[in-house]
Amino acid sequence: MPTTVSATPAAVIVAIDGPSGTGKSSTSKAVAAQLGLSYLDTGAQYRAITWWMLSNGVDVSDQQAIAAAADKPSIVSGTDPRQPAISADGLDAAGPIRTQEVTAAVSAVSAVPEVRTRITELQRTIAASADGGIVVEGRDIGTTVLPGADLKVFLTASPEARAARRSGELKTTEGKPVTDLAATQQALTARDKADSSRKTSPLKKADDAVEVDTTELTLEQVIECVVTLVEKAAARKAEGEPVEEAAR
Ligand SMILES: Nc1ncnc2c1ncn2[C@@H]1O[C@H](COP(=O)(O)OP(=O)(O)OP(=O)(O)O)[C@@H](O)[C@H]1O
Ligand SMILES: Nc1ccn([C@H]2C[C@H](O)[C@@H](COP(=O)(O)O)O2)c(=O)n1
Q: Where does the protein end up (predicted)?
């Protein structure tokens, strides 16, 4: 992650969406750190509520049980891009939310409307209190959570590229590296399908989002591209141009 912090001319709200493994988290953290913005990982919030449910005996195959428990845990997110933090009922969830057990259950939990209402409210509150601007990444930020964002970016990449990126970092529950590329790609596309086909707030590119295909780009190139888009959006915002213009 770059260490230089350059000044943005206006406090911008940036929405970064896209399927799994397209580079949303890596890009969002680096862009926020470079431009001195706050950062919110909304996937981590859905993962944290899923982890809480799994740890507290909620049957995650039962939509009604999930809905009934949606308001119970306290989910707290840090917004420092250099030290992302997430807790559920005061317990550090940063490690447990990345296990395969949580990854396998998170699409089902996050599809339940009561969960989405709860987490969306939390996200809007955090974004509204980020006085210096914020980069919020997820699946429905540009379409549902922050439709008035100053800049919307939709990251894509081929399933093969995403699986190759993911397989380098995944661990089994026993702590062994995941080496089966085909299985990784299958799990990733299955999660995308579930996230894109759910009724409430599916994964979807906002009409006014800038699409960036990262398949052939290095992470550094993607970061540079998004930094430029944010700087342009911030300059337009400072000049008082309409929000729709800022997102082009
Ligand atoms: N352009 C790129 N080239 C190569 N590797 C990349 C690129 N972008 C991201 N990566 C790597 O791919 C992996 C997944 O990236 P990241 O976690 O940022 O994706 P994501 O879209 O946030 O995924 P998810 O939605 O599943 O959390 C990381 O190991 C990251 O370093
Ligand atoms: N805005 C969001 C963010 C995430 N989700 C769901 C769908 C994902 O499969 C899951 C985990 O996200 P990740 O950590 O992989 O980015 O959370 C969502 O529905 N809406």
A: Cytoplasm
